[in-house]
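Researcher:
Attend to token order:
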Amino acid sequence: MDRRNFLKKSAITATGLSLTPLMGKPFSSLYGQSAPGNKIKIGLIGCRNQGWSNLKTFLQYPTVECISLCDVDDQWLYQRAAEYEKLKGNKPAQLVKDWRRVIDNKDVDMVIIGTPDHWHCLQMIAACEAGKDVYVEKPLANTIEECDLMVRAARKYDRIVQVGQWQRSDPHWDEAAAYVQSGALGRVRTVKVWAYQTSKWTLPVVPDSAVPAGVDYDMWLGPAPKRNFNQNRFHYNFRFFWDYAGGLMADWGVHLLDYAMKGMNAGLPSYVYG
């Protein structure tokens, strides 16, 4: 299927979903459903950084195994397969570059989505539609419209979906929020949030270049605008370009702002300016 028809078909699939709130459930609720002797079989889409880190965390549960790895870059696909073999004694049965093959794998119970932000919406909806539970990296998506579609899919297909706001799974954040809300600090009038590591993300200008060997660049672009390959836009640095992500606000803001909102027991913002 060519790229245009694939995106058109994906958009059609995403329509007609009813909007209801998304309630993230902890992995313990999924883990508790596993019958004795059964294993929860995971497929990982996006193996390089956070996706791999998430998978290793899930593998701490004895009833979990990974049967499918997917990445558009052969280097990381086969490196992670080798690392998995060292951890577990065998490689995952399925190693693929097309994420749709993970979704189509009927043996996969749950999908971890560790791809760049511009892919989250289509992949999460497809996974839910296929009856798979999902752990999707933050930010959930790049637009409110995409988020609405994802929420609807989770509810329509009755799937367990958790977003990678990892502080929501760390009990010390609950303790800190409870302390603030107890009034022990007195009345909190102002909360300021900022990221301080900006200098490390200054990128030198580099020319466009050939696609690296072993990389399916068309699949990496997916729903993003068609552009020539440039190393500055690839892998980790995708987050600094509007075609794929939302910069530091979407990268670290989703964590840091969430700390503040949780501590203050705040709802949605009344206004945003910049």
